[in-house]
Amino acid sequence: MRDLPLPLALTARLLPVAVLASAGWALSSGPLAASPAGEDSARETTGSGPFPTSESAPPTSAAVKTYTKAPSPCSGVTTKTVKSLVPGAKTAGKEIASTDESVRRTCSWNALKGYDYRWLDISYEIQQSDDKAENTYEERTTKNSGGGAVPGLGDEAYSVVNLTAESKQQTREGVVYVRLSNALVIVTYNGSDFESKKAPGTDEINKGAIKAAKEAVAVLEDTR
């Protein structure tokens, strides 16, 4: 994060604080150096000034990035899961080009087996802080309303399933959003039957998306 400029009031106080710090160092070589109370006082005076010391307070959690880069998204689910959710797809998947792979990476699997079509996407996004990830998570889950929380997955997780129809062809799509510290995992899973023009059931799509999300989250956790 970019440091904010010091307020004018604090800048005006720098000189007297420096004088006090110098006095503290001078006293540390005299008789007071043997006094534990004198040592504690010197530490407190130095720590409260504008100069960093070993006694300074640790940085806030918002400035700490638990995850610094996105893992390989095509390793986000097992071969067994790919075969189950996307029959006929190449299990290796296809990574989508990204402008910055350290920030966002996505892998896609899709296949038409007979008349059944399935599509699975797994994305990892690394945000600058926990707060930023929380805000992004809230924005996206609010925008995609109508779903519900997924307990026990990440720091917070949400799934939603929607049905669409185009030229009488139905498609049902499930999306799962998961937040872990400063990282987001987004799983999209959808399907259609081009013979009946019907879509797979809500339960099938929702459970498939959540299953993939759990595996993708486990892969991310291993990168800590």
Q: How are the SSEs placed, and which strands pair?
A:
Elements (H helix, E strand, L loop, with lengths): L7 H5 L1 H15 L7 H12 L31 H7 L8 E3 L7 E10 L2 E11 L3 H14 L4 E2 L6 E11 L2 E12 L2 E11 L8 H20 L3
Antiparallel strand pairs: 1-2, 2-3, 3-7, 4-5, 5-6, 6-7
Helix pairs in contact: 2-3
Structural write-up:
This protein has 224 residues and is α+β, with helices and mostly antiparallel strands. It folds into two domains: 8-57, no CATH class; 73-221, 3-Layer(aba) Sandwich (Protein Transport Mog1p, Chain A). It is built from six helices and seven strands. It has helices at residues 8-12, 14-28, 36-47, 79-85, 130-143, 202-221, and strands at 94-96, 104-113, 116-126, 148-149, 156-166, 169-180, 183-193. The protein has a seven-stranded antiparallel sheet with strand order 1-2-3-7-6-5-4, with helices on both faces. It is globular, with a radius of gyration of 27 Å. It starts with 7 loop residues before the first helix and ends with a helix. Residues 1-57 have low confidence and may be disordered.
CATH hierarchy: architecture of the largest domain: 3-Layer(aba) Sandwich
Order of helices and strands: HHHHEEEHEEEEH
Overall geometric form? globular
For the record, the count of structural domains works out to 2
Which spans have pLDDT < 50 for at least 5 consecutive residues? 1-57
Name of the level-1 CATH class of the largest domain = Alpha Beta
> Which class best fits the helix and strand makeup?
alpha+beta
Portion in strands: 25-35%
The number of strands is: 7
